[in-house]
Amino acid sequence: MVEIKNLVKRYGDLLALDHLNLQVREGEVFGLLGPNGSGKTTAINCMLALLKYDRGTIRIFGEEMTPESYHIKQQIGIVLQNVAVFDELTVYENIDYFCGLYIKEKQRRRELVEEAVVFAGLEDYRKVRPRKLSGGLLRRLNIACGIAHKPRLIIMDEPTVAVDPQSRNKILEGIQELNRQGSTIIYTSHYMEEVEQICTRIAILDHGRSIAVGTKEELKMMIKTGETVTIEAVALTEEQLHAIEELPHVFAVDYERQLLTVRCTRAKHNLIRILNYLQEQEILFGRVFSELPTLNDVFLEITGKQLRD
Ligand SMILES: Nc1ncnc2c1ncn2[C@@H]1O[C@H](COP(=O)(O)OP(=O)(O)OP(=O)(O)O)[C@@H](O)[C@H]1O
């Protein structure tokens, strides 16, 4: 449905997109996950032909996307980072205005606007002007304006930034509902939990390149870490740390401020083996955690950095 090949975008000397390749299929909730500055917004703006790029091709619905591709744009719903609504219009009038850009027939438009009001949970605010809304409600209005016409493709750029947890959940559930109703969705975020929760496939971006693509399960299988064991343990010696490193399936050990972190490959009994060793050595330990890999682990193993520095 969307095909991006070798996309290059420079801002002066800065290479914001470095031969980016992406393919989004019909029916997906496709996540673009990357830290701030990795190029997510630039990629979205190029995709929408809002920004000129230096090299590469972008095809949407099988056709090349250009600033004049109005028939393609008609089928796309856009929710950008900055809220773009009219202060002089009420909540209802705003949604009606944006929906009216695509849907001319009045009865159909009335139904769609009403559905969008309910969808965004704005029933009690129909006649309120945007400046009287809280940040979360304003974001929900921004989304309602972008999706009311039920577009085939919806592109959302970090719609939950600076949003309260209640609105965030409402937004995430709403995106899944839009997908169930038939829209393909491209969703950018730097929150790995959100992307894991709603996206059916994910591309991880760093420095304007896609460094890994797949379902969350596929991405986690790409890395060595199968389990991270963290234990509060007192006064471990260098020899003991070395012995832990030598245990089967252990490939990295870190010990800082009495906190032992052991990275293991996928295997049974990793935790038990480490605890047995601590007991044998009569080492005092407190709380124990065992975690499966996260998308942050994927990012960390591929780039050597945390997703959120
Ligand atoms: N108009 C611009 N002029 C110059 N540099 C820019 C411009 N817009 C973005 N950049 C730079 O391009 C790089 C990619 O930015 P972009 O906004 O696309 O990243 P992002 O992943 O969307 O980050 P964020 O989550 O902070 O929006 C960053 O280094 C950014 O500073």
From TrEMBL:
Pfam families documented for this protein: ABC_tran
ABC transporter domain residues = 2-232
Q: What are the UniProt keywords, alphabetically?
A: ATP-binding, Nucleotide-binding
Please give the PROSITE patterns that the UniProt record associates with this protein. Answer: ABC_TRANSPORTER_2 (PS50893)
Q: Which GO terms describe its molecular function?
A: ATP binding; ATP hydrolysis activity
ATP-binding as a keyword of this entry, yes or no, is yes
What is the protein's given name? ABC transporter ATP-binding protein
